[in-house]
């Protein structure tokens, strides 16, 4: 049996990302679930770029601010205290617009924890 209490502030941010990413799942040694806490400033996006997954489902819980998500159907806004669910094969790019007035903090869960990401190139 194993239990972990993690203060997200003690987890060093992942280097070379377009926003602050704290890999909480890695810190806990999780193997089947990816769990990340993102702090996204205006003008930044959540890694990765516009992309989709073959098998991974993602859940975004927006703790503070308004998270914007680009999809092939148009832009969606996920307000504070709301959840966005992204099914496999659903292209998305999560970001905070440059003219936003606050940082967005969101907890993202992805399962299974697999490297099945693909860049999505919208048709011009």
From TrEMBL:
GO molecular function terms listed in the Swiss-Prot or TrEMBL record? metal ion binding
Q: Where is the signal peptide?
A: none
Q: Which UniProt keywords apply?
A: Metal-binding
| One Pfam entry name | Cupin_2
Cupin type-2 domain segment(s) = 37-99
Which InterPro entries does this UniProt record tie to the protein? Cupin_2, GPI/OXD, RmlC-like_jellyroll, RmlC_Cupin_sf
Q: What is this protein called?
A: Cupin domain-containing protein
């Amino acid at each position: 049996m194993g239990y972990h209490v993690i203060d997200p502030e003690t987890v060093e941010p992942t280097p070379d990302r377009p926003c602050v990413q704290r890999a909480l799942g890695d810190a806990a040694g999780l193997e089947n679930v990816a769990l990340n806490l993102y702090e996204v400033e205006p003008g930044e996006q959540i890694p990765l770029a516009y992309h989709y997954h073959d098998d991974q489902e993602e859940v975004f819980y927006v703790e503070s601010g308004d998270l914007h998500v680009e999809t092939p159907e148009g832009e969606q806004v996920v307000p504070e205290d709301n959840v966005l669910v992204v099914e496999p094969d659903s292209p998305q790019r999560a970001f905070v617009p440059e003219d936003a007035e606050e940082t967005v903090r969101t907890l993202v869960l992805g399962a299974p924890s697999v490297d099945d990401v693909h860049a999505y190139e919208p048709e011009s």
